[in-house]
Amino acid sequence: MKYFPIFLDAKDINAMIIGGGEVAARKIELLLKSTTQISIMAASLNPSVERLVRSHQLTWLSHNYQAGHLGDCNLVIAATDSREVNSAIAAESNQLKLLTNVVDQPELCNYITPAIIDRNPMIIAMSSSGSAPILLRMLREQIEKTLPYGYGKLADFSFKFREHVKARIKSMRERRTFWERTLRGPIGQAILAGERTAAEQELIASLQTQTPSARGEIVFIHTGNGNPDHLTLNAHREMQFADAVFYDQAVNQDIIEYIRRDASKFPQQVASEVLINVQHALELAEQGDKVIYLLHGELNLPENKALAASSIVIKHLYSGR
Fold first, then answer.
1. Predicted confidence (pLDDT) per residue in 66-85, tens digit
2. Which keywords, in A-to-Z order, does the entry hold (predicted)?
């Protein structure tokens, strides 16, 4: 990745915008979603910026860029119409090791602002690393259409009951299953429909019901030619709920990126065509883990007595099927 994705805590942002035109206005409007710790340095302001300064009581330094005013800020946006001035701003800002963004001059930036889909408190940020802005806009439009406007309500609801659920359901895997069932089912639909009280009552009732212990399982995913686009929806879902994953060097490493981030990873030095590490996978599954075993191609597994004798659920999923 050319850029490392990261979210900044808004309470620590102290921003300086240099410029008073429409570009500066757009940058200020975006920052105002998170903070009012914003200063603007410009000899004059257009009506949009002037309105934002007045309505949010922002600090205005009523002169064009002058060196020596960046010491108290930690984020700088150069939005003037002069490339020379913007270059000078970037030089000072980078020397002070500040977060620096220069409009339309990516070579002077040490960060870029992603495309954003705001479902507060949920935020989806996307970037093409500056290589394909039209493609990025198309992707954003697709996601906007499929993501309900009220999706943030689900996040607020989950946060409110997170500790209650954690106290009632001890296993992390069981909690993941509980929340998926809750948010996908009638409770989630009630929240999106604005029926919050009914949703809360139903969730409390569901917590009072005895929750069965998670059963371990092993899911063999045959990845075919290794193209991640050929993975089935079922395969994606299983991988997102994995507790552990096994794979050898023949498996396309790009597929590993689809595994849940905090799943334990067990790369195998011996090719799966030679040896399947069934014993280790069974031990984890018997502890209640969901184990994903990635296999290149459509390998036919040899009969295994330990696997056949075990009561662990075994699944096989094939790419493209």
1. 999 999 999 999 999 999 99
2. Methyltransferase, NAD, Oxidoreductase, Porphyrin biosynthesis, Transferase
Flag residues of the chain having pLDDT under 70. Answer: 210-214, 320-321
pTM given for the model: 0.72
- Report, in this order, helix, strand and coil percent for the chain, each rounded to 5: 40, 20, 40
| DSSP H or E run through 109 | none
Contact 80, 20 (CB under 8 A): no
* Residue 264: predicted pLDDT: 95
Looking at the domain assignment, is residue 135 inside a domain?
no
Give residue-wise pLDDT tens across range 280-300. Answer: 999 999 988 899 999 999 888
Q: Note whether residue 29 is domain-resident.
A: yes
pLDDT of residue 215: 78
294 close to 221: Cβ distance less than 8 angstroms: yes
Query: What DSSP string describes 137-170?
Result: HHHHHHHHHHS-TTHHHHHHHHHHHHHHHHHH--
Q: What is the extent of the structural domain holding 105?
A: 10-113
79: Cα separation from own chain's centroid = 28
